[in-house]
Design brief:
Blueprint lengths: L2 H12 L1 H6 L20 E5 L16 E6 L2 H10 L4 E4 L12 E7 L7 H12 L2 E12 L11 H6 L11 E8 L2 E8 L3 H10 L2 E10 L2 E2 L7 E8 L4 E5 L5 E5 L8 E4 L5 E2 L7 E2 L5 E2 L9 E2 L5 E4 L6 E4 L8 E4 L11 E2 L10 E2 L12
């Protein structure tokens, strides 16, 4: 635990009862999250505080677990919701849970971490999300002109500091009764959050400034509301023996396992360079994974495009370190005729023949 995280933990422990009293109602900004939660889902609430997010879930029967690094806030949560499950756990220790969840709630938590820790925290969250699961997140908008927690006053005092993303953190005073403690906040904007999540294997579905449930300008939003779908972080790109670069499994994949959800935020109706075909005349520019999946005549993976959210499914068990391959002939409706380099025993020598055009891309 770093110094900033430890100081924040100490502050929350010190004011836990007073802080819990100020968190007795559900923010309007959280209500859209219920659309991404279904009956029976496993829900992890990181930085759960006094557990008030349970009020969001009261109409849906879910398997809930709340975790927080503050022992005193967890005590308050257990008193308020005695039937729910809570655990003292830091976000740096999420691997100790050793399970996967359908959705993770992260309400006013990530903004407590400095720039250098944010990617690690998002990676830890992704490690407990199943592929296709949702990260439902809210962060304070410190660029709000009317906020007491504002980045504008520190910016005016030291404008050069805020030129760099790494130094956009500020210390604020939380006051309640006779208590006053220091809390660290990072001044996020939508662009920083989108980039952070995209690099970690998420597809950002919603990302907007909100004020009491309404979308507003960045200068007046109280919060940044973000919904991101986890595609996968268990794949890696490296040199391929088949062609150029390929995608490889980082862990064992089981036959019929859905292990990757294809992001649909960059669709095109024309093929360009390495765009991947996903049916209905559409191609997706998935530079993270799908663009780099090579063809094999004995593919270990298939693309299921007959569903609203196309996925990669293992055709058989795939060992750690094995390259992920697809049979391009299974999806290409009008591909060009290319030489196959898979060197499998059942290799056809080519793939994607267009019998109507008879175009050949090799001698």
């Amino acid at each position: 635990m770093n110094d900033i995280n430890e100081k924040n933990r100490h502050s929350y422990n010190q004011v836990a009862k007073l802080f819990s009293a100020t968190r007795s109602y559900l923010w309007h900004d959280l209500t859209p999250f219920i659309d991404y939660i279904q009956t029976g889902d496993k829900i992890l609430d990181v930085g759960c505080g006094n557990g008030r997010q349970l009020d969001l879930l009261k109409e849906v029967k879910v398997d809930y677990l709340g975790v927080d690094f503050s022992e005193n806030l967890i005590e308050a949560a257990r008193e308020k919701y005695p039937e729910a499950k809570f655990q003292v756990l830091d976000l740096f220790e999420l691997e100790k849970l050793n399970e996967r969840f359908d959705a993770v709630l992260c309400i006013s938590v990530l903004n407590h971490f400095p720039y250098e820790d944010q990617a690690k925290i998002i990676k830890n969250i992704s490690s407990v999300l199943r592929p296709g699961g949702y990260l439902l997140m809210v962060n304070w908008n410190l660029w709000n002109l009317e906020s007491k927690k504002s980045a504008w006053w520190p910016l005016l005092k030291n404008p050069f500091k805020f030129l760099f993303r790494q130094t956009r953190g500020i210390w604020t005073k939380w006051k309640g009764g006779q208590e006053a403690v220091d809390l660290y906040y990072y001044a996020f904007n939508k662009k920083r959050l989108r980039k952070l999540l995209s690099k970690a294997g998420f597809m950002v579905l919603e990302n907007y400034y909100s004020r009491k449930g309404h979308r507003v300008s960045w200068l007046f939003g109280n919060n940044i509301v973000t919904v991101a779908k986890f595609c996968s972080s268990e794949l890696e790109r490296r040199k391929s023996k088949i062609h150029g670069y390929g995608i490889f499994a980082k862990r064992k994949l089981i036959k019929d396992e859905i292990f990757y959800y294809i992001p649909l935020n960059k669709l095109s109706y024309r093929n360009y360079k390495r765009y991947a075909y996903i049916g209905n005349g559409q191609y997706v520019n998935d530079h993270g994974v799908l663009n780099w999946v090579n063809h094999s005549c004995n593919a270990n993976t298939r693309i299921d495009i007959n569903r609203p959210d196309p996925v990669l499914i293992a055709c058989r068990d795939i060992a750690p370190g094995e390259e992920i391959t697809c049979d391009y002939d299974d999806t290409e409706e009008l591909g060009v005729y290319r030489k196959c380099l898979c060197k499998e025993g059942a290799c056809k020598g080519h793939f994607g023949e267009d019998k109507s055009l008879k175009v050949k891309m090799f001698d």
